[in-house]
Amino acid sequence: MVVTAVTLALLAVVLLGPVSHLLPRAGWAVAEPRATLVLWQAIGLSAGLAALGAVAAVAVAPLSDTLFGALRRFAERFVAGEPTGGLGPLHTVLLMVAVVLGARLLGVLALSAWRTVRARGRHRRMVDLIGTPLTADRDGLVLDHPAPAAYCLPGGTPRVVLTSGALELFDDAELAAVLAHERAHLAERHDLVVLPFAAWSAALPWLPTVRRSRAAVDGLVEMVADDRACLHADRTVLACALARFGTAGVPAGALAATGTGSVLTRVHRLLDPPPRSPRLRYALVTVAVTLLALPTAALLLSGV
Amino acid sequence: MARLGELERAVMEVLWSAPESVTARDIVTALPDRDLAATTVLTVLSRLERKDLVARDRDGRAHRYRPTASREEHAAALMREALDTAEDRSAALASFASQVSPGEAAALAGALAEAVRRRTGGG
Question: Is this entry keyworded Transcription (chain B) (predicted)?
Answer without folding.
Answer: yes
